[in-house]
Specification:
about 220 residues, alpha/beta, Glutaredoxin, 2 domains, five-stranded mixed β-sheet, 6 helices, 7 strands, isomerase, protein disulfide isomerase activity
């Protein structure tokens, strides 16, 4: 748990909680100690009291998103022990994607804009420190312009360092995932080493509505 609040908040907790939960107090003003935890939660700029929990057995993390009052903390700990807390996944703020040829996806919008979308979605998963990601992004932007007339196809990207989702598990960056309309549970992984022309050919073969696919001009 991360906080700059006094220990008095935890005094109301049942004694049994201390036998089952290890409590850690970190001064949020101490950047060296607090930043790694805040980064893990995706709230590096937070100046408020933060209460979080980590379950190493399940590789899960949890965040108290209501005010850290004694009663809320007690309920948070109780639900943690009973396994009724929903895991916390970090997400950037929801961006304005109006008129963007390459949609920006965040953790909070992956369900609506990708997994539940009725359209085919090509998603680039990247990180800011990835050496090859910039080249891949330029490729995807070029492809997005090439397929601009295809209504049932969306091009998008997500920063995996700042956004999490239980159904997005990627081991290397950049990663290109094609989510077919009607079968979002089985995304197709595309090669990031392919040329733009080769990727266009693969995308066209995956599209259901081939009558709207543009000619090869890449």
């Amino acid at each position: 748990m991360i906080s700059k609040i006094s220990f008095s908040l935890f005094k109301r907790l049942p004694e049994s909680s201390y036998r089952k939960i290890m409590f850690v107090y970190i001064d949020i003003a101490d950047e060296n100690q607090a930043k790694p935890f805040l980064t893990l939660l995706g709230i590096e700029d937070s100046e408020n009291t933060v209460v979080s929990a980590f379950d190493n057995r399940m590789s899960s993390k949890y965040l108290l998103e209501s005010n850290p009052t004694p009663s809320n903390i007690e309920e948070f700990c109780s639900r943690l022990l009973h396994g009724t807390l929903s895991p916390y996944f970090k997400s950037q703020p929801i961006p304005d994607n109006k008129e963007k040829i390459l949609q920006v996806i965040v953790g909070k919008t992956l369900d609506d804009l990708v997994l539940s979308s009725p359209k085919n979605v090509l998603l680039e998963v990247y990180t800011p420190w990835c050496i090859n990601c910039e080249t891949t992004t330029k490729q995807i932007e070029k492809l997005a312009k090439h397929f601009m007339g295809v209504d049932n196809l969306v091009f998008a990207r997500i920063d995996a360092s700042a956004n999490e989702h239980p159904k997005l598990q990627v081991d290397d960056y950049p990663t290109l995932l094609f989510y077919p309309a009607g079968d979002k549970a089985n995304p197709v992984k595309l090669s990031t080493k392919s040329t733009s022309k080769d990727l266009a050919t693969v995308i066209k073969s995956l599209l259901r509505a081939k009558k709207d696919v543009p000619k090869d001009e890449l």
